Fold these 3 entries.
Entry 1:
Amino acid sequence: MDLLKYIKIDENSRIPKYQQIIDSIIYNISVGNLTMDQKIPSINMFSEEFYLSRDTIEKAYSILKERNIITPIRGKGYYISRTKLISKVNILFLVNKLSNYKSIIYNHFIGSIGPNSHIDLQVYHCDETLFLNLLEKNKSAYDYYVIMPHFQTKDLKHISYPDKVLSVLKKIPLDKLIILDNVKPNTLDGALGKIHQDFENDIYDALSQGLNRIKKYEKIILAFPEKSIYPYPKRILHGFRKFCVKHNLDFEILDKIYDDMVLKKGDLFITIRETDLVNLVKQVRENEYLLGTDIGIISYNDTPLKELLGITVISTDFKVMGETAAKTIIDKKKCHLKVPFNLIERESL
């Protein structure tokens, strides 16, 4: 079989023989010597050609099979089943939803990781079952797993790490695991990367930065969706309450910005969802209130449009999150980083 002439086994190398087989097959895929659906040598043929034990060949083929690189067909042999960028570092990037913020993280991750990587982006929509199925389907198929853990309960509330999810994450080799955005204290501490927000303390500290301007308002209203298809961590609520109580500020928590809100001069709104921000700004304009004087607005997480509209934000640095995750993989050095989170003051405050 032609492939055998391309396989190189170095008897003096410290690399295990089974790994040399894996590397040789992957290399021959990358340079075009092996193509999709092409048959590769049988275990017996491989063993006889290179004077290697069947166990060695079987181990190499088993790993290639787990990574979805080869597929056994009963009675026929083994065939190449995956060729796309196989020679590169393969990364599974799991996000809970598509949003402007996730896109910023992902784009900066791609921009920093470089051309020698192949990233598969999968969205699990905060659904535990879908998440577990994706990981089960792709176990052992990737070199690294970058995961943002945000899930919903049956009553549409946020949960970070359901028991089954945590159990599955613990089965991923820690040196292949990057946790982004949301971590659980004292959990998966050996992971290669934990690059995250601290939702409770972040909002508390960011609002504290703007305390002098916030205190000019008579009441602070947080629009926090209690139930949502894409729920938000309740630690945001805890941090907001702690800030208001600490500084003796009158506050109210609403599920959303309602149509025909009762707006009063001296109100300061903090919005999380984009739809709530749009609805609020529209009503402020319709009622001819002066934004930043009569009514204040602080929005959660920054975007170029918010900057253009002069909306004050409290926001994590999504660019840093994406770039740091990529650097962690490139350097192969453990990184545990709480990403900067700040108040960015604009006209709306």
Note: The mean pLDDT is 91.
Entry 2:
Amino acid sequence: MQIREKASTPLYRQLADTLRTRILTGSYAANAKIPSEAELQEDTGLSRSTVRKALDMLVDEGLIQKERGKGAFVASDVHSHANDLLFSSFTAMMERQGSTVTTKVVDAALSATPGGVASFLHIAAGEDAVKLTRLRYVDNEPFCVETTYLPSRFAELIDETTEGSLYQALRERFHELPGRGHKTFEVCYATPAEAFLLDVKRGDALMLVIDFVQDSDGAPLHVSKRVMRTDRAKYVEPI
């Protein structure tokens, strides 16, 4: 197992990335036992604490489960979690790349939905939905403006602190997980508000990524629009 000592990515993240890939590609099947901490230490030359930190990261992602005295096993519902990772939170994706993410809530309210969003959410155009607008910072620099629309059943999020992972809040508060969905990518140009928030010039080219995500039962979960700078951080979408 190749772990590069001089790579910029922390060693535990490199190991976690390698194990995650093997799980999601089926090299380690659902319910299969993965190599022990001692075996991973011997294979990679990493310390016990580094190996354990990598495994704990995969536990937090729901990909593996530890059983006292037996070791670590691939989760039985690993395919569900694979979808979770495909539409994982911006926070999780950037942290897996070794960056620190912080968030400022710009606005949170019930708001009329645009036609395309309303259609996906199975509501009438103009009907109210939860709208969260958040400014995301990567390593303390403004990186993207994220606007998320959710069905009105999530209205209590308006009064909650949503400055961390939205998916974590949905999981803990509502027992909701992302399932299937699709993404679109396009170039857009900074509006006056986006220019102010992202510290760019009005009309500067930005990247727009839109997620249309269903929950694990196939019901519409959210539509999220991320307007991102491309000059301050490397952003990699999972495939």
Note: Strands lie at 64-67, 71-74, 101-112, 128-138, 141-150, 178-189, 205-215, 220-228.
Entry 3:
Amino acid sequence: MSKLVRGFRDIFEPQSNLFTELENCARGVLRRYGFSELRLPTVEQKELFVKSTGETTDIVQKEMYSFEDAGHRQLAIRPEGTPGVVRAYLENNFTQAAPVQKFYYIGNMFRAERPQAGRYREFEQIGAESIGNSAPAADAEMILMLKDIVSAFGAKNYSVKINSLGCDKCRPLYRQALIDFLSQEKDTLCENCQTRLEKNPLRVLDCKVDGPRFSGRVPTMTLCPECQAHFEEVQCLLKGKIDFMVDPMLVRGLDYYSRTVFEFQAGDTSQNAIAAGGRYDGLIKSMGGPATPAVGWAMGVERVIASRGEVPVPPQKSVYVASLGPACHEPAFNLMQALRQAGVRTEGGLFDKNAKGQMKQANRCGAAYALILGEDELAKQEVTLKDLTSGEQKQLPLATIVQEVKKLV
């Protein structure tokens, strides 16, 4: 017998209901902010993620599921959503027709990383990308929109950290200062960080192994006047609307970020980020488009659900329709369909089983009531309604049974 692949999982009710609840909650908030849904393909050209995400990132170096197809094309199963959104934005000529766009996506991502609590090789993300707006207001809007989603869903005890990574003017000086500092510690760095030191030293600060021990010790970035003004305005727009702290160690793990970055955290483990993002003003140009400002975020659906904890959800009451004879099968089936059309969760249809078998199934599926249609009931144009908790039962007219059941459930 085949078994589930490690790092992947089956999600049954009631857990699967939480995914639907968060998705619907996010859709409602995102639409109020003027975002439209973009459904991304699962497979893209591998080059898309290498160029956009960065050759030194863990995603590209060791986590991406990539393969060569029958046409000898190098493809990858999407590990994140932003590159696909930017590719769609460019390929569909939004740069000319409508350069200011606000998209959101909901879908599964795939990374070949070591499975652990809160981290799977297939996981769901909800993401949003605001393209074409360079104003600090766009950064603040994205952070507040994210807060609205997690708050509406009921996530508890989360904190918000923000930082600025500067731009091409101020970052080179910081990069060199960071290299000079970290070079003194090179022999103590993990193998990955020794490679990152020259290629992308900011990634060392994001390392789960080395990053924490450098907190408060590394040089701080001196922003250029433009970046400083941008970051100050972001903070001004957020004050009084959300609690946040500025964390100079917050750098994010992807190469394309610039200026504002942010992270929502819950819990005290190394996997405590439930959502994160930032500005990426240079990404679209690096992918062949014109210089276009953009800011976005991605939310880990499983992690947001975990941060909320167990919340009792009253089960939806359902009914079970039982037929006690061949002559009753068609009217019982019609009753099932009428109830469903009326919005009632309805089980039944095991008409080849006897009365005991059908009632046993009614209890197994958690039905609150059974509607029993036998030859005696059919002759009187009635239905027996049985309360499966108390055992009480009564006869009701077949013509009004749908309305009566709706009152009960």
Note: The chain has two domains: 15-170+221-308, 318-408.
